[in-house]
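Tokens as discussed.
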């Protein structure tokens, strides 16, 4: 198994100007991470990535008020992270972008239930 120094060297060698992100890509990525840096918004996105919910259900599941949930959902909608569709009298929120779903799944796979960073490899898997 390569050590972290040799992995970093191999990864650095693989970076070329053709696949380096553009300044607008870096700015948009940073804005997305900043948007998801809010614990209530991240929780809302996680919930919505696992099912379509209305604002009242999302507020109850995330432990915030409906007004606060609505404000966070409005920001997430404006950024294109979540979408909303009408179902009768209710508005259901959804995450249509599989990249957002993957990003949220990966971060929670990386964080243990107690909030510590989960190890990349299970103990003794060498």
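Sequence:
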């Amino acid at each position: 198994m390569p050590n972290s120094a040799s992995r970093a060297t191999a990864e650095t060698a693989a970076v070329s100007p053709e696949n380096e992100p553009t300044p607008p890509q870096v700015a948009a990525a940073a804005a997305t991470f900043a948007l998801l840096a809010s614990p209530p918004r991240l929780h809302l996105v996680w919930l919505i990535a696992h099912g379509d919910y209305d604002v009242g259900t999302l507020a109850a599941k995330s432990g915030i008020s409906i007004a606060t949930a609505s404000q966070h959902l409005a920001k997430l909608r404006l950024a294109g992270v979540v979408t909303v569709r009408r179902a009768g009298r209710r508005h259901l929120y959804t995450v249509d972008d599989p990249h957002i779903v993957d990003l949220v799944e990966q971060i929670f796979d990386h964080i243990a239930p107690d909030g510590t960073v989960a190890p990349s490899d299970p103990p003794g898997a060498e």
